Amino acid sequence: MRLGINGWRIHGHRTGVGRYLLNIVRCWNREFTRGTFDSIRFYSHRPLNRAEIPLPEEIAHFRLSPEMRMLLWENLRFGPSADADVLWCPSFSRPWLARGKTVVTVFEATLALYPEYFPKNHALSFAGIYIPLYRWSARNAHSIITTTQAAKNDIMRAFDVPEHKLRCVPLAPAPEFVPIRDAAALRATREKYLGGDSPFFLFVGKLTPRRNVPMLMEAFAGIQNKVPHKLLVAGLNTTGFPLQEHARKLGIASRFVHAGYVPNEDLLLLYNAADCFVLPYSYEALSLTTMESQAVGVPVITTDVPGLRETTGGHAILIPEASVSHIAAAMLRIAEDRRLHRDLSEAGPEFMRQFTWEKTARATLDALWEAARS
């Protein structure tokens, strides 16, 4: 039996799906996969440098040129060319034509259920192209992998697929996300990113509208005279929102930093150096960044929706909804109540110990092998 993997997203800045994919496949050495697939083939559109992308040597890499956008490449190159009994597509969609059974990872169905949380032009383009494609992919895949019970419920409701097709495989923080007690290294990180050794609130992620970064900035502006903290936003500004101009209008320009994309080695230090991680989602079915924050022992503020309650195990300050007043109150509370801060710092790593990428990799391989044998 042969397994083929759509590896398009492993290249470039590995956020989201790219990190998910790499954390799984780097576990799949010969000993790990014994008794399952005879061969695993990893397909992508670019050459693969194994020093930068540490795939096990047992996984063969096949480059399918030319370089093109993911959906085009998936349908014009990967689907027709990948010679395997099972194709794993780790990013919502499967090719229209495939030579084997397809298993698709669908992380969420938020846009299909809650288009109001997205910009109108974004929601319209997705409604016309991506949502129909994701729905078709979910219905026509042999099986679907998702990550939380909340996401599973959303996918069944949004895409009208039966429960027996879904396999729930929890994510995990990468093994390097551990508490760091080196005070000098953490102080150097704060000085590097903030220009001084100040406590700070941290946000990590793409600046999509439903993550409410402008709202977070406004909440911080309301409490800035009551706390010594700064606010650091790390992530790609995919919406083009004028962050610095907004910071000037709010009067927080001297205490606000946008770091853009942060590589994993610095991200680990940023999490550890932060006083609190804040993710004010309007709605989300899962969050890897809250898991990473909890794993290093940083208190989390996020929204009380099923997916985030499930992801954090409730070991966070869960605000009723994303609003300036709720975010500001939670930030002020964690800054002032150091006993609560300590309790959440201790509970987070303890809760996260049950999740490992080895478990995620094993359960994912089991789901793919089940598809192969059915």
Looking at how many chains there are and whether they match, the oligomeric state comes to single chain
How many alpha or pi helices? 15
Point out poorly predicted stretches: none
Q: The CATH topology of the largest domain, please? A: Rossmann fold
The pLDDT mean sits at 93
Beta-strand percent range: 15-25%
Strand element count: 13
N-to-C series of helices and strands: EHHEEHEEHHEHEHEHEHEHEHEHEHHH
Largest sheet: 7 strands, parallel
What helical percentage do the residues reach? 40-55%
Mind telling me the CATH class of the largest domain? Answer: Alpha Beta
Can you characterise this structure?
- It is a single chain.
- With 374 residues, the protein is α/β, with parallel strands linked by helices.
- It has 2 domains: 2-172 and 357-373, Glycogen Phosphorylase B (Rossmann fold, 3-Layer(aba) Sandwich); 183-352, Rossmann fold, CATH 3.40.50.
- The protein is 44% helix and 15% strand.
- It is built from 15 helices and 13 strands.
- The protein has helices at residues 17-25, 30-33, 70-81, 110-113, 120-140, 149-159, 183-194, 213-223, 243-250, 264-273, 288-296, 306-312, 324-336, 338-352, 357-373; strands at 2-6, 39-44, 60-63, 86-89, 101-105, 143-146, 166-168, 200-204, 230-234, 256-260, 276-279, 300-303, 317-319.
- It has a 7-stranded parallel sheet, with helices on both faces. The protein has a 6-stranded parallel sheet with strand order 10-9-8-11-12-13, with helices on both faces.
- Helix 8 (213-223) links the parallel strand 8 (200-204) and strand 9.
- Helix 7 (183-194) crosses helix 10 and helix 8 packs across helix 13.
- The longest helix is centred in the middle third of the chain and has 21 residues, at 120-140.
- It is globular, with a radius of gyration of 21 Å.
